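re: the backbone from monday

yeah here it is again, tokenized this time
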């Protein structure tokens, strides 16, 4: 991942949630479940990267729209979408998500 950031393939920093505490605290249930924060640390988008991960042409459009809005200083037009995917496999004591 560090190489991808240096190569400019990622727009910003990322979080590696090795102990899964952030995922649990934020209520993640499936993967991918995307969280976008604005410059003040406010959650402005949560959901799927796009309407169908099996259609490469979608190219994470919902996520791109949210990031474009944040970078332009605008209110995110679509702040939430339903995340679809495989359930998160919890490795911390194999405990369920506390938000379920």
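seq for it, each position gets an aa:
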């Amino acid at each position: 991942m560090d190489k991808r950031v240096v190569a400019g393939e990622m727009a910003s920093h990322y979080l590696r949630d090795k102990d899964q505490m952030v995922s649990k605290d934020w209520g993640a249930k499936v993967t991918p479940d995307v969280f976008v924060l604005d410059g003040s640390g406010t959650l402005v988008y949560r959901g799927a990267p796009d309407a169908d991960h099996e259609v490469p042409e979608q190219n994470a459009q919902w996520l791109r729209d949210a990031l474009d809005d944040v970078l332009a200083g605008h209110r995110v037009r679509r702040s939430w979408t339903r995340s679809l995917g495989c359930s998160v496999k919890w490795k911390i004591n194999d405990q369920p998500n506390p938000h379920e």
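The domain at 18-87 is CATH 3.40.30.10 (Glutaredoxin). The chain has one domain: 18-87.
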